[in-house]
Amino acid sequence: MKYIALCLLFVAINGGLYAQDAENIERVGRLYNYWDKIHDVAVIGDLAYVTTGFSGLQIMDVSDPGNPEIIGFWDDNLGHAASVTVSGNFAYLKTNNYELYIINIEDPENPVKVGFYEFVFPGRGLSVQGDYLYIVGSNSREPESINFLYLILATLKI
C-alpha cells in the first residue's frame, strides 16, 4: 500500500492544515476550519490530535491523507490549547495559562476531561514515557530565569 511509507507533516499556513509527502514536498491533502490558531500535533495511527488555541483539541481521521476529516473535538478548556501528547487512551493537553488537561480519547468522537493540573510556571515541551509525564519550561519573569522539569505521575485509574 502506498501510504505505509508516507510521512505526514502538518503545517499551519494562513489558517489551513496541510498534509504533505515529506519526500516530494507536495500537498496531498488539506483541511480548513475557523480555528483560533494551530500550535501542535500528535499523530497516533490514523488519528491526528491537533491543538487549536481557544478552539481546543481537534481529533482528525487521517487514514486518507488526501481527505483529512474532523471526527471529534474537546473545547471545554479555559485556556489556550498549545501542546499535546498522547499515550494510550489519554491526550495530555497543555494550555498557555499554566494548565494541563487530561482527556480520555478512548472514544475519539466524544473525548472527555478526566484530569486537571495547574502549574506555578508555564510549561513548554510535553512527553509521556511509561507512567510519567515530562514537562519542561522556565519562569522568564524572574531575573534568574528559573528552568525546571516537571515529572508528573500520569497513570490514571478510572
Please outline the helices and strands.
Layout: E1 8-13, E2 16-21, E3 26-32, E4 40-44, E5 47-51, E6 57-61, E7 69-74, E8 81-87, E9 90-95, E10 99-104, E11 112-118, E12 123-129, E13 132-139, E14 146-153
Antiparallel strand pairs: 1-2, 2-3, 4-5, 5-6, 6-7, 8-9, 9-10, 10-11, 12-13, 13-14
Brief summary of the model shown:
The chain is mostly beta strands and 158 residues long. Helix content is 0%, strand content 56%.
Characterise the protein shown here.
This protein is 0% helix and 56% strand. By secondary structure, the protein is mainly beta. It has a single domain (2-122), classed as Lipocalin (Beta Barrel). The strands form 4 sheets. It has a 4-stranded antiparallel sheet, with no helix packed on it. Strands 8-9-10-11 form a 4-stranded antiparallel sheet, with no helix packed on it. A 3-stranded antiparallel sheet has the order 1-2-3, with no helix packed on it. Strand 9 (90-95) and strand 10 form a beta hairpin. 27% of the residues are buried. Residues 1-15 have low confidence and may be disordered.
**What's the CATH first level?**
Mainly Beta
**What's the number of structural domains?**
1
Biggest β-sheet description: 4 strands, antiparallel
Which percent bin holds the helix content?
under 10%
Keywords summarizing the entry:
158 residues, mainly beta, Lipocalin, four-stranded antiparallel beta sheet, disordered N terminus
